[in-house]
Design goal:
Organism: Halohasta litorea
Order of helices and strands: EHEEEEHE
Pfam families: Fer4_15 (PF13459)
Strand content: 25-35%
GO molecular function: iron-sulfur cluster binding; metal ion binding
CATH class: Alpha Beta
Keywords: Electron transport, Iron, Iron-sulfur, Metal-binding, Transport
Largest sheet: 4 strands, antiparallel
Oligomer: single chain
Protein name: Ferredoxin
Strand order of the largest sheet: 4-5-1-6
CATH architecture: 2-Layer Sandwich
Radius of gyration: 11 Å
Length: 80
């Protein structure tokens, strides 16, 4: 699984931070950061989700009030 995080869309509610430890509060920017991610486009970050953290990653994606987080399975199909 991989997760995509559109940091530009993020409004800093930090609900993702509560659901998955890979998301961290960046109070200076007023947005979340995604640890270990790679910026593939401007403000679009991607990271592979460890198998034992998939459940938490899914909850983080579902908790985002502005849909700034998308989760994809290994076949590239969007799960959230």
């Amino acid at each position: 699984m991989k997760i995509e995080f559109d940091r530009d869309t993020c409004i800093g509610m930090y609900q993702c931070v509560e659901e998955w430890d890979a998301f961290k509060k960046n109070l200076d920017a007023g947005k979340a950061d995604l640890d270990g991610s790679e910026e593939v486009e401007e403000d679009l970050f991607v990271v592979e989700v460890p198998e034992d953290e998939e459940f938490d990653a899914e909850f983080a994606a579902r908790s985002c009030p502005v849909d700034a987080i998308a989760l994809y399975d290994d076949d590239g199909e969007q799960v959230v």
